[in-house]
Amino acid sequence: MNLLLLTTHLNKGGLSRYVLNLAKGLTQRNHRVVVASGPGEWSREVEAAGAIFKEIPIRTKSICSPKVITCFSRLSSLIKEYNIEIIHANTRVTQCLAYLLHKGHNIPYVSAFHGFYQPKLSRRLFKFAGMRSIAVSKSVKEHLITDLQIPAEAIHVVYNGIDSFDSEVKASLRQSWGFGENDFLVGMLGRISAEKGHELALEAMMRLFGQFGHLYFLISGKGKVEEKLKSRVASENLSRRVRFLDCPAGQFLDSIDVLLAPSEKEGFGFSVIEAFAKKVAVIGYNTGGIAEIIEHMHNGILFNQYNSLVLADAIEELMLKDELRNKLISQAKEDSYNFTIERMASETDRVYLECLQLQKEEHDYAD
User: Fold this and answer.
1) One domain, residues 85 and 23
2) The pTM is what?
């Protein structure tokens, strides 16, 4: 098939990673994949994955932006040039654009939903849900049914996938960061925003710093509340115990002992399955997609109260119980094979085929 994947940008983050990994998986299944997006750091990675990257001026959050019309014209040309058979949209604006292209060119389109959205009247009236919708977790599917009123039978759950990390060689940066073998490194990876729980994690770590002199908190990522968080670390005189880093996700995970995922809301949780694959113990809040990946005391730890004391207790438990930590790591590594790029692409492929069949049935009925 000739496929068109649409997104607003390709900057580092979960959504861009989804597009990149899906493009790679679909290309491996011998599809021709065109990714159209605003500019971003990962455009070259898309091309390296075997897909075709086309830049479009779609950096807007408004479906009423003139950029939508400009991009409609550009994408119409791409549809003809590459004989596109399916459009797969990943943001509100590109879903609107995909709907217009669907109407203008009679091409099936799929809308992927990656998180939770405010159930505004405009979203319920103009769903842009595609001929079929993809939800990245069961909890997102339930949200789409309940809050956006998308029919359950039109939604498929397709979990995100990652590359397998089968090498036993770790690219640890601990020594270059100034840490020793006996230091215990707890980390958070990804966008630094209010809902991700960095403040809660910092408060939990502060409860433990006095008791454990070899405990450190490492944060890798960028985001809206980054400066606020850095200011608090400075005001609490914690700059020696809390470090802000900028390094590839794989190397970060190779270097830490425990990953925290204390998001208040989370559609899926890429960093959790990456930690599983990298043999890093994970503690996550019992919500959304995180609770669908982590099984408490089987492959990780879930905490049920959004409370820094509860989170601190979980961290301390993994620090002191090596046998438990190793058991969780071992099971998590095995479970990581449930979240591969190959499986993600295969299940997405089935959604595409269903859309093509729906289109054929509609055409036959019209005749």
Assistant:
1) yes
2) 0.91
